[in-house]
Amino acid sequence: MVGLDATIVNVALPAIHRSLHASLSGLQWTVDAYTLVIATLLMLAGSTADRIGRRRVFQTGLVAFSTGSLLCALAPSLGALITFRIVQAVGGSMLNPVAMSIIRNVFEDPRERAQAIGMWGGVAGLSFALGPIVGGALVDAASWRWVFLVNVPVGIAGVILTAMYVPESRAPRPRRVDPVGQLLVIVVLSTLTYAIIEGHGEGWTSFEILGLFAVALVSAVSLVLYELTRDEPLLNVRFFRSAPFSGATLIAVCAFGALSGALFLNTLYLQDVRHLSPLHAGLYLLPLAMMGIIFGPISGRLVGTRGSRPSLIVAGIAITISALMFTRLTDTTASVYILAANLVFGIGFGLVNPPITNTAVTGMPAAQAGVAAAVASTSRQVGNTLGVAIVGAIVSGGVVSAIGPGFAVATHAAWWVITGLGVAMLVVGLMTTTAWARRTASEAAEQLGADPIMHAPAPAR
Asked: What's the CATH number for 1-175?
């Protein structure tokens, strides 16, 4: 459900725009209300599951996600839809991280655990690929509301099957709650996102927008200073002394910012400029998703034999090339050209995912590996949120009618930003896979009082 929801809603955006008379910023909030809440609650959901029971939290997440999906399908207005997307996201934050914890607990044999994690990852990849097709078919055949209704029977089945087959488990020593840190994370991300999305409409130099940026900055500084004083912080700032960890976090933000921005722009362009049906628009996005499925396992094996460096380099180059191709987009760009650009983007995105987690946990203390991976997952959602917010803000400032004539040309500046994200991935990937970067990881692990873990061999210098 969670994987499908990442792409299925994008295909429905033009239909939501017409049905609920949504503005471009309203469509941004339809996507970002979901990713923003997930980004702020992922680590809290994981620690809560460790404390009160993983099965209990997982079932609660299924109920909340399914209820939110049903409410989204019945939403009478854009404001109601955005509100119910928040309910859906609260449930979603309890699913993916807790599912991984359940898998690790149930499968004690390392070989079986690896197979289970591989199957879990395969389903996630398949759902991502099916999103544009399933979403397009549902919107074409019925209504945009069905992209949410489809979650309800799956959620009900999930609750029943979890009760029948998943044993309850808890961590022997769960981390303590950090309410102040959690509140500061919410304030930082929500004020920053709101300021970016609403900046064009309110005026970038208006008191409201400048005030929100100031609140985000002060909250971010306060978060760092406060977390440094805690023994068990929500966000261990000391992790960022490791160059590989900091690099993986930044690469995750860039990669998923590029992906969410690309999907957002592609969907609106294909349906509102090229006047394709939702299903046909989904087919145009299929090469991106399929390459992600194909190259994800290839990258995983490559990371295991050669380290993260080759995957990160090729991923950065591929996303940069794809975004550069899209900077030439017009109202009549050849279909083959669009398909090729999406295919190249999919290659880059498929390659970048495995090394993000590997690079994040490499050099971290074994006892902190789960927390480090959770930060990497949160970074992905932060990238999703900021990607849609930034490209939408750029397009809003470059076209008189936000969606319609002139939209293709207005996207050029946004595609240049995505090009910059690809370049940043390449540069950071090169810098954080060197001997110097590995030394910083070892030093960070020593300061945290534990031996580092190394998942992949050191890349060639």
From this structure: 1.20.1250.20
